[in-house]
Amino acid sequence: MMPWIRARWLHLLKLAHDVRGYLTGNADFAFVEDALTSWMYPLDLEFTLQRAALYYAPRDEEGLPLRHYLSVGPRYNPTRVAAYALAHFNRYWRTHDETSRAEFFKAAEWFMRAPEGLWTYDYPWLDLEPPWLSAMAQGEGISVLVRAWALSREERFLAQAKRALVPFTRPLADGGVRSTLDDGSPFLEEYPTRDSVHVLNGFLFALIGLVDLNRVAPAEVAAVDLDALLATLERHLDAWDAGFWSLYDLSHQRTGRPNFATVSYHNLHVAQLTYLGHMTERPRLRQVASHWDACAHRLRCRLRAFWGKVQYRLWEPSPK
Prior knowledge:
Blueprint: H1 3-24, H2 46-50, H3 52-55, E1 67-69, E2 73-75, H4 78-95, H5 98-112, H6 135-152, H7 155-163, H8 166-169, E3 178-180, E4 186-188, H9 200-214, H10 218-221, H11 226-236, H12 252-255, H13 263-279, H14 283-296, H15 299-315
Antiparallel strand pairs: 1-2, 3-4
């Protein structure tokens, strides 16, 4: 099958999965409770390994996943490599499967290749020109490297995770991923575009990486001011809350059109907030997560979110 045809086919499969999720719900990105007392990653990514042809194909000559974009073809996406690593890490932690351990470390070594701990994207996206950085990629890369250190105790992994903190301290104008919301509160951008829309899951992935590293290197994380970022999340969380569902970003503040999360992304928000709420002792985060989790189990909420998503996509087609 030609690559572009395969990419189209995979896009349609994911779209069908999203639609089915609105109708029946799904368990994608379930919260891993054992993450609160171990090094397990807080998101259950086993479903991605069970559907590897959908999530981790094509692959390079080492077997690491690429992503085929209709606009530029196959490219490394740091968040996809990180998801592959963390899925295998959790599988190894649960089952002691040595194959998953080897796959995890193979992916962890990919994050060691960038000498400055900067995992850039080498293709244009929205108004971003390559090479560009993402707070989500930096956060997930840190989460991978901290766990590589936890398994191996090799300090080089921890040193690379510390280097990866630098973009969190720099504003967008200086090549970093740190921006501000309308009231001046600090925020970390998944997509550091000129008019950032403040994507929630990317911010939460970044915070999880910081919380992970803070467990073993709090002095270095202090430079990022994690407490201020968590305060932003607590203070502004209602902005991503439609009352019956979570929003993917804050684009509605400019356009008036809310970008409802898919069911999978909604579940992701729930798991991320649950983990951060427990690990940072912030009940407000857990309360919102509990409310959103209850919404995910109500058909009427899912159908309202589905209709909202359809309306949004009629106005804003998804980039490819």
